Amino acid sequence: MATESSLSAHSNLNQEMKRERRETFGGSDASKLVPELHVPHIDLNKFLSGNESDVEEATRLVDEACREHGFFVVVNHGVDMELMKAVHECMNEFFTMPLDVKQRAQRKECGKALNDLGMKILEILGLSLGVSREYFKNFYEDNDSRLRLNYYPPCEKPEVVLGTGPHTDPTSVPILHQDHVSGLQVCVNDQWYSIPPTPDSFVVNIGDTFTVCHTKLQLGFFIFHLPSSKLN
Question: Where are the residues of the annotated region Disordered (predicted)?
């Protein structure tokens, strides 16, 4: 990733990395300037226990979140966090490798763990939409999942550099795992909010598919990731 000054000084760098002026989001600490979005924390272990009140509470919170902004956080989810720690360590090493080595990467163990987590989340989404908890699990049983790793080196002026730009997700249930560096932001009612990292948790963003189901409108919630000025 390149800073504004180095983009000007090195003609061989791709100018598409640099944001248009109208797309900048404040100073180098822009991620600290936006208010935090308060999202519910869903205890998946309680939901899966079968206790009626816990199931109803999780369903209610997810339904409200999906209608308001499309985000919630899952905790006690059953995913081995040592595995996720290893994934982050491997990712840091991965992005220092030559391209031909990167193309041979294997992601099966992590992909399976997150796919299993997605199946659990589909149970709550099913109940929140008034169908059985097995309805979407059965529908997505033979799904194709995609694992994406985003890496941003430290950047002196992250507000002028393209990270993962503003977008909606055309998928069903994106599951996001953050490290300790803030940068995830979501646009709700034309206002940008941050979702800070929470240890041992995953951020769930309903994609365009479930946005239509919950809001009856064909639109998604814009999100983007802002690089940090000091940290990877």
Answer: 1-29
